[in-house]
C-alpha cells in the first residue's frame, strides 16, 4: 500500500513537470494524496524522494520549483531537504554549477527564515551537521578538486 502511495506521488510529480503545472497546484494535490493515505505531514519520505528525483537525473528548473513549493507549504521538512540537497550538490558543484546555484538560492530563501520561526540558528546548523555526518561529507576539504 505504502509503495503505491509513493509511486502515485512520483507519477503526479512527473505529470506536473510534463504539463508544466503550477507548483502550488501540484503541492495541493500531493498534500491531499498523502493526507488521504494517512501519511503525516511534513513527510520525511517526501523530502528524500523529491531530492533523489531531482539530483541529478531530473535536474530541470520546474522540478526545483516543485521542491521549493513543497518546502514553502511544509509538506516536507525544509531543513531536511536543504541538508539532503547539500550532501548531493556540494560534492558535484563543479559538474553541476546550476544545481549549486539553485541550492544556494533555496538556502537563502528558506534556511534563515526557518531559523527565526523554528528556533535558533544552532538548530539549523545542528540539522545540517547531522546530515553531513550521516553522508560522510562533514569536511568541505574533501570536496575541493
Please outline what is shown here.
The chain has 145 residues and is mainly alpha-helical. It has helices at residues 2-18, 23-36, 44-54, 61-72, 78-89, 97-118, 121-135.
Describe the structure.
The protein is mostly helical. The protein has one domain. It has helices at 2-18, 23-36, 44-54, 61-72, 78-89, 97-118, 121-135. Helix 2 packs across helix 4 and helix 3 runs parallel beside helix 5 (78-89). The longest helix is centred in the C-terminal third of the chain and has 22 residues, at 97-118.
| Beta-strand segment tally | 0
N- to C-terminal distance: 44 Å
Residue fraction in strands: under 5%
Order of helices and strands: HHHHHHH
Class from secondary-structure proportions? mainly alpha
Structurally, how many domains make up the residues? 1
Mean pLDDT metric = 84
Number of helices: 7
Spans with pLDDT under 50 lasting ≥5 residues? 138-145
- Gross morphology is globular
Task: Determine Rg (CA atoms, Å).
Answer: 15 Å
Q: How would you characterize the largest beta sheet?
A: none
- Approximate helicity band: over 70%
GO cellular component, one term: mediator complex
InterPro entries: MED33A/B
Which key features would you list for this structure?
single chain, 145 residues, mainly alpha, 7 helices, 0% strand, disordered C terminus
Amino acid at each position: 500500500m505504502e509503495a503505491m502511495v509513493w509511486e502515485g506521488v512520483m507519477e503526479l510529480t512527473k505529470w506536473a513537470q510534463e504539463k508544466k503545472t503550477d507548483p502550488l497546484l501540484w503541492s495541493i494535490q500531493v498534500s491531499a494524496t498523502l493526507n488521504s493515505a494517512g501519511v503525516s505531514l511534513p513527510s520525511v519520505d517526501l523530502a528524500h524522494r523529491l531530492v533523489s528525483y531531482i539530483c541529478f537525473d531530473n535536474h530541470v528548473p520546474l522540478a526545483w520549483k516543485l521542491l521549493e513549493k513543497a518546502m514553502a507549504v511544509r509538506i516536507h521538512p525544509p531543513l531536511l531537504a536543504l541538508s539532503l540537497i547539500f550532501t548531493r550538490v556540494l560534492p558535484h558543484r563543479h559538474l553541476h554549477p546550476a544545481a549549486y546555484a539553485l541550492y544556494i538560492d533555496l538556502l537563502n530563501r528558506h534556511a534563515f527564515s526557518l531559523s527565526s520561526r523554528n528556533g535558533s540558528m544552532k538548530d539549523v546548523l545542528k540539522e545540517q551537521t547531522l546530515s553531513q555526518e550521516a553522508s560522510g561529507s562533514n569536511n568541505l576539504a574533501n570536496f575541493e578538486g
